[in-house]
Amino acid sequence: MQSDIDEQKKQIRKQCRLARQALPESLKNHASRQICNWIANLHEFQRANVVLTYMPIKAEVDLRPLLASHSHIIWVLPRILPEPEHSMLFHIYDPNFLVYHPFGMAEPSKNLPIIAPGEIQMALVPGLAYDRQGWRLGYGGGYYDRFLQGFTGLSLGVVYEALFLEDVPRGNYDIPVHGVVTEAGVYRISSKFPASGYG
Known about the structure:
Layout: H1 2-22, H2 25-40, H3 43-47, E1 50-52, H4 64-69, E2 74-80, E3 88-92, E4 98-100, E5 106-108, E6 122-126, E7 129-131, E8 136-137, H5 143-149, E9 154-158, E10 164-165, E11 179-182, E12 185-188
Parallel strand pairs: 1-2, 1-6, 6-9, 7-10, 9-11
Antiparallel strand pairs: 2-3, 4-5, 7-8, 11-12
């Protein structure tokens, strides 16, 4: 039942938060740099013009060095809409026009140009944890699942290797990503992200 899955997710979220908090700062910094390198070397990334990313919060993997070193890409950030929409809009990233959401993360100003989801070629998706099948454990809002449900580009989960698990609970509305990137490497999961594309 969905209620059982929700309870399982709640418990695993608590465990994963504690596990992430326990990671040494030096390890998280090193892992973030390695993950940026893995992504930068992907053919799929090198061919992409419009890429969705995020601003890190709560010790998430920090992809900001990737943005700085690939300024030719049109980087896009999500902006959470207030309830009852419970969804996201996407704006061009400009480091000079960031505002802070009550959840704590930096978001693009609502005055920045909006990018339609169909224009996004690659999405770098944060998560508290991922599993080997590409299922994501988020923070419970469902924002990314709503986006991924209709997303036609390539979705890559971004997470520390310590939080790349064998299995996470999933419900009826959860959507898996096509691949996962950790500091240990790139894990290609979907046929949309074939092994022959790496390099």
